[in-house]
Specification:
Layout (H helix, E strand, L loop, with lengths): L7 H10 L13 E9 L4 H13 L6 H22 L6 E9 L4 E8 L7 H4 L16 H8 L2 E7 L3 E9 L3
Antiparallel strand pairs: 1-2, 2-3, 3-5, 4-5
């Protein structure tokens, strides 16, 4: 599967290569990263929301911005649990990067589940693969409404990666 961003190790390697004598990064924005791996259980949706909000707090967001981030992360994790793994066991990977100078937050939720056959169709409002479960099909619409940019990369049988970006303090 094509990756939508750097891993923490790749980011740290680039940062180390770009560090000057004073310990500051040269030629690239300073950023902080975090990664979390959790079981694909519905109770972990709330955990992921809180972790993302606490991590985002380093950018001093408003309460409304924090609520937007929490809602988007909640939708992405819920999609991974329900659609990605279809109730089966698996891992959900949450990673985030905060660029303080740019006041930019990037959050990625990734699974190794069934994948999405047609991403464009899946992102249409009201589209759901689980209508029998009372799903509204609004997950991606909410992510797009609450974040500035949403990128979905997926392949059948290989999982899905959803990267969401938000500029803080517009």
């Amino acid at each position: 599967m094509e990756e939508t961003g750097q891993t923490v190790q790749e980011t740290q390697k680039v940062q180390a290569e770009q560090t000057g004598e004073n310990g500051k990064n040269v030629g690239m924005p300073e950023c902080e990263t975090m990664e979390l791996i959790m079981e694909s259980r519905s109770e972990n949706e709330e955990f992921a929301r809180v972790v993302a909000a606490v991590f985002a707090s380093r950018l001093d967001p408003t309460l409304e911005e924090l609520d937007d981030i929490k809602t988007a992360v909640s939708e992405a994790v819920t999609n991974a649990v329900i659609h990605g793994y279809r109730g089966q066991e698996g891992k959900i990977y949450l990673s985030a990067t905060a660029w303080e100078k740019e006041q930019l937050l990037s959050v990625t939720v990734r699974d190794e589940g069934v994948g999405i056959r047609d991403v464009e169709q899946a992102m249409e409002p009201m589209f759901t693969t689980c209508p029998e479960d009372g799903r509204s099909g609004m997950g991606f619409s909410f992510m797009e409404a609450f974040m500035d940019r949403v990128e979905v990369v997926s392949a059948p049988g290989k999982g899905t990666s959803v990267t969401m970006k938000k500029k803080i303090g517009r």
